Amino acid sequence: MAKWLDSDDLLPYDNQVGGHKFTKEKPLLGLLKHKEGYILKSVEGGTKGKNEVRFYEELLKNESLINLRKLVPLYYGTVAVQINSLDMTFIVLDDITTGMKKPCVMDVKIGSQTWEPGCSEKKKNDENAKYTECKEQWSFCIPGFQVYDLSSSNLVQPQKYDKEFGKSLDPGKVISVFKTFLNFNSGYLGLEKLVQSFTAQLDHIRRYFQTQKHYHFYSSSVLLVYDAETLKNDKNTYPLIRVSLIDFAHVTPADGKIDLNYLQGITNLWTLFRTQLLHNN
C-alpha cells in the first residue's frame, strides 16, 4: 500500500458506532473508509497514538501473539494523508462489516476500570464518571450500536444509538438493549443460531484471556457485528457474524499477570449471552 493516500478517495465510515466521529473540523479523530474497502483510523497525538501503532506492529511481527492476532481486524500498516493542509497518519485496518447488506454493529467497552495505571488523576476521574453504573454492575458498558430493525417497515437506514444513550443507560435495561440489537422481535428462524454464534465467539475470547499474560487492556472494546439480512435464512443456516477486539491506545504490558479487569468484563458479557439470551428468544 502506498505511503500517501489521496484524501479524495476517503469518506467518513458509516458503520462507526463508538468513539469520536471524523469531521473536516476535527480530522484528528474518527474513522474513514477508503474506496478499496479499508478502514483508516487516525493516529492520536502523544503517547496514545504511538502506543496503538506499537501494539499493532508487535502483533504483526511476534509469532507468540498469533492467537491474539486472530481476534483483531487485519492490520495493513500506516499511511499518510493530507487533510486541510495537515499531514496526518492513519492506521489501516480490515473492515469487518465487508460483505454485509444490513450490518448491525455494537461497541462493548470491556472492564470496570477504563483508565490505565499511571494516568493522571484527571483522566482517572473523567473515566470513572462515564458509564459508571453499567461498569459497576456489568464490568462493561455500551458506547454505541446500530441495528436494522427487521420488524420495522423502514430498512433503508439503521437505527443508531450513540454514546449519550450508553452513558444514560440503566444497568437493569442492558439485557433488553441486547435483545433490541439482536432483533429478538423479528421472529426469524436464524435468531437462535445468531445467539449461539455470538456466545461461542465470546467464549473463545474469554478462554484466551483466562491465560494470556502479554498485555492488560484498558478502554478497549469488543465489536459485535452481524448481517441482519442473513437472519432471514432457513433455520439450518448460520447468520453471518464477526467479533473483533478493537481500540488499543491504552494497552499496557501485563508483566506476567492475568488481566483480571478484562477477564471479568468478557466473562460477564459471555454469561449474559449464555444465560439471558441463548434459548430465550
UniProtKB/TrEMBL annotation:
<keyword id="KW-0418">Kinase</keyword>
<dbReference type="GO" id="GO:0005634">
    <property type="term" value="C:nucleus"/>
</dbReference>
<keyword id="KW-0067">ATP-binding</keyword>
<comment type="similarity">
    <text>Belongs to the inositol phosphokinase (IPK) family.</text>
</comment>
<keyword id="KW-0547">Nucleotide-binding</keyword>
<protein>
    <recommendedName>
        <fullName>Kinase</fullName>
        <ecNumber>2.7.-.-</ecNumber>
    </recommendedName>
</protein>
<dbReference type="GO" id="GO:0032958">
    <property type="term" value="P:inositol phosphate biosynthetic process"/>
</dbReference>
<dbReference type="InterPro" id="IPR005522">
    <property type="entry name" value="IPK"/>
</dbReference>
<dbReference type="InterPro" id="IPR038286">
    <property type="entry name" value="IPK_sf"/>
</dbReference>
<dbReference type="Pfam" id="PF03770">
    <property type="entry name" value="IPK"/>
</dbReference>
<dbReference type="GO" id="GO:0005524">
    <property type="term" value="F:ATP binding"/>
</dbReference>
<dbReference type="GO" id="GO:0005737">
    <property type="term" value="C:cytoplasm"/>
</dbReference>
<dbReference type="GO" id="GO:0047326">
    <property type="term" value="F:inositol-1,3,4,6-tetrakisphosphate 5-kinase activity"/>
</dbReference>
<dbReference type="GO" id="GO:0008440">
    <property type="term" value="F:inositol-1,4,5-trisphosphate 3-kinase activity"/>
</dbReference>
<keyword id="KW-0808">Transferase</keyword>
